[in-house]
Amino acid sequence: MLTLHVAERSPETAVLVDGATIAAVGPYEELAAAHPAARVRRWPGILTSGLLNPYGTELLEATYHPDPREADALGTEPIGGERAAAIFRADPSRLGAGARRGVQRLLAHGTVAIAGELRARPVLDAVRRAGLAVGQRPPQLPGPPSLSPSPLILLPPLTAGGPARFAVFDVADRAELVRRGASTCVATVIAGRLVYRAR
Length: 199
Prior knowledge:
Largest sheet: 4 strands, mixed
Strand content: 25-35%
Helix content: 25-40%
Number of strands: 11
Strand order of the largest sheet: 3-2-1-4
CATH architecture of the largest domain: Roll
Order of helices and strands: EEEHEEEHHHHEHEEHEE
Radius of gyration: 18 Å
Distance between the termini: 25 Å
Number of helices: 7
Structural class: alpha/beta
CATH superfamily of the largest domain: Urease, subunit C, domain 1
Shape: elongated
CATH class of the largest domain: Mainly Beta
Number of domains: 2
């Protein structure tokens, strides 16, 4: 089934998805006229190729993302450093559980690819299940590890025949996205599947 994704601030880059592949990229009106049976998903903001987060290792293997049920004891924010290492030593199963929650947080920030050398099997499994691409780290890293690193690293433009992997941010344009960061994400699509949608 064809799905046509369009964001109100970037109708010139609507994306027609066929399964896990991009069938076409172009102005919404043209794609809608050529494919009237396609299901349409309308989003606020802009549609982009999605983000590469270069800190996959740091955010998924060296950080613990608490379960909401642990909020009283551990809070809700990611835990790093020696405190995270102590949590993993005390209960190794928490590495995989924390990584799965970390992946969900990355998806909620428009991340469709990560970089860094992942070694832990539970982390690799979480990344594979989500469909996140794994790429090379850029030569210059953008500051400290973050779910919304600054500057943001956008992947190359979307093209027909490429993987249906992109994100939508509730901003007016890319300049506002850079200024406000990846927490403005409202939708993330990987392999044609909607893997994150803001409530």
